[in-house]
Write a structure and sequence with these properties.
CATH class of the largest domain: Alpha Beta
Number of domains: 2
Radius of gyration: 21 Å
Largest sheet: 4 strands, antiparallel
Strand content: 35-45%
CATH topology of the largest domain: Outer Surface Protein A, domain 3
Strand order of the largest sheet: 11-12-7-13
Helix content: 10-25%
Order of helices and strands: HEEEEEEHEEEEEEHE
Length: about 180
């Protein structure tokens, strides 16, 4: 029994949902998203809420039940409010800028690193902060992780690209190890 899967999903005003052959389409003020849901899961639309239930019982059904409900809820949240993730750049001479709609990172390499614009994602740069926003939660997280992977924070000086509020555990260098 899935605690998450049992909860009905409220449909806010201004959001249209259509369900056709396990393809859920959500249209709202910020855009339109669609997601294929596995055939083991049954989706019903009743008045102003969506009910996700188990269609046919298999080994994976309980895991897919909660997942499907969460995917649909995230789509509704995305088309109404959108999602955004923030990254911080730390390091002397490290900076980011926008070149058209592409993101250019100068993070200690001999060359600038260019991140191509992804459809449905918007980049914004404020001094040493990068804001990645869009309506698809999965895509926003994926693009943010790809940017962070260019120069992840290192534990000795703390330089690199990190999520906003991320704690990087610092290590002491060679000096602190062997003093006898």
């Amino acid at each position: 029994m899935s605690r998450i899967g049992k909860k009905p999903i409220e449909i806010p005003q201004g959001v249209e949902i259509s369900i056709e052959n396990n393809l859920v389409k959500v249209k709202g003020p910020k855009g339109e998203l669609e997601q294929y849901i596995r055939p083991e899961i049954k989706i019903e639309k009743k008045e102003n809420e969506i009910i996700v239930s188990v269609g046919k019982e298999t080994k994976r059904t309980s895991a897919l039940w909660g997942l499907s409900r969460t995917l649909i809820a995230n789509m509704i949240e995305g088309v109404t409010n959108g999602y955004e993730k923030k990254l911080e750049i730390q390091g002397v001479g490290y900076r980011a800028s926008l070149e058209g709609e592409d993101l250019v990172l100068l993070v200690g390499f001999s060359h600038p690193v260019k991140i191509e614009k992804v459809v449905g994602i918007k980049f914004e740069v404020q001094k040493l902060n990068i804001i990645v926003s869009g309506i698809n939660k999965e895509l926003v997280g994926q693009v943010t992780a790809r940017i962070r992977a260019v120069r992840p924070p290192e534990p000795y000086k703390g330089k690199g690209i990190r999520y906003e509020g991320e704690y990087v555990r610092r290590k002491s260098g060679k000096k602190a190890i062997g003093t006898e």
